[in-house]
């Protein structure tokens, strides 16, 4: 029997499993430029890390007074992002090892992301992660995106797991807040070092302040075993 019997692991995708944020920035920059916003910078983009694509474009429409309908902006951004994602999406090596380690143990896993389902599935297929991560929940499929707990609770439901038996891996403060709201343990790996002091990360059971450079599959696995609820 696995030492993680009964534990389920739910991964955020962007910035956690894969370094897709540069692609999201470029897709956003191109989309906004097409609507007359030509000064969108990486610093501007950072405030949207961890927020769903739909909520991001809704904010852009208001902030930049864009006339195009929100669904048009969303479709444009998703189309540009998919083109970039299919070309090259980098998997964090230790995250791939972690997924493989959990798969070998028979641990139930899911991906719960603010991205569109099409984008999630394209990345999982293109990187080979889809072989192990077959349960997928997009924020498009639930009422509220992160920091609301909806995507994580839906992932737990599909896995047949109680929230208390789930562990979330997250890189962004809204995701850490969502995991806490869902009643799940969290391993937080901040994508942006400047966000490490965000109060949402203080709720994580394990906070790796230096992000992916500090994350190792073996250390994460050992923490899962130590923190598993007594059966």
Describe the structure in your own words.
The chain is an alpha/beta fold. The protein contains 9 helices and 6 strands; from the N terminus they run βαααααβαβαβαββα. The protein has helices at 21-33, 42-46, 53-63, 70-87, 93-105, 117-127, 150-159, 173-181, 217-227, and strands at residues 8-11, 108-113, 135-138, 166-170, 185-188, 206-207. It has a 6-stranded parallel sheet, with helices on both faces. Strand 4 (166-170), helix 8 (173-181) and strand 5 (185-188) form a beta-alpha-beta unit. It is globular and about 55 Å long. InterPro entries: HAD-like_sf (IPR036412), HAD-SF_hydro_IA (IPR006439), HAD_sf (IPR023214), PGP-like_dom2 (IPR023198).
Strand order of the largest sheet: 3-2-1-4-5-6
Query: What class would the helix/strand composition place it in?
Result: alpha/beta
> DSSP strand (E) fraction?
5-15%
Secondary-structure element sequence?
Answer: EHHHHHEHEHEHEEH
What count of helical segments does DSSP give? 9
Q: Can you tell me the residue ranges where pLDDT is under 50 for at least 5 consecutive residues?
A: none
State the helicity in percent bands: 40-55%
| Distance between the amino and carboxyl termini | 13 Å
Rg (C-alpha, Å):
17 Å
Tell me the overall shape.
globular
- Write down how many β-strands occur, each being a DSSP E stretch of 2 or more residues: 6
Mean pLDDT: 94
Largest sheet: 6 strands, parallel
């Amino acid at each position: 029997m696995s030492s993680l019997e009964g534990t389920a692991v739910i991964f955020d995708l962007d910035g956690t499993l894969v370094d897709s944020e540069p692609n999201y920035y470029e897709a956003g920059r191109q989309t906004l430029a097409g609507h007359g916003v030509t000064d969108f910078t990486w610093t501007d983009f950072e405030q949207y890390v961890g927020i769903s694509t739909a909520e991001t474009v809704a904010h852009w429409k208001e902030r930049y007074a864009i006339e195009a309908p929100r669904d048009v902006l969303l479709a444009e951004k998703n189309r540009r992002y998919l083109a970039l994602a299919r070309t090259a999406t980098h998997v964090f090596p230790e995250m791939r090892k972690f997924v493989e380690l959990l798969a070998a143990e028979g641990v139930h896993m899911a991906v719960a992301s603010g991205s569109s389902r099409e984008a999630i599935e394209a990345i999982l297929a293109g990187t080979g992660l889809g072989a192990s991560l077959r349960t997928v929940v997009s924020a498009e499929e639930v009422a509220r995106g992160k920091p609301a707990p909806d995507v994580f609770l839906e992932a737990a439901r599909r896995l047949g797991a109680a929230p208390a038996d789930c562990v979330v891996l997250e890189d962004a403060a809204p995701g850490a807040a969502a995991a806490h709201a869902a009643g799940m343990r969290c391993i937080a790996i901040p994508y942006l070092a400047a966000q490490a002091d965000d109060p949402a990360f203080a709720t994580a059971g394990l906070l790796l302040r230096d992000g992916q450079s500090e994350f190792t599959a073996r250390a994460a696995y050992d923490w899962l075993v130590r923190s598993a609820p007594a059966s």
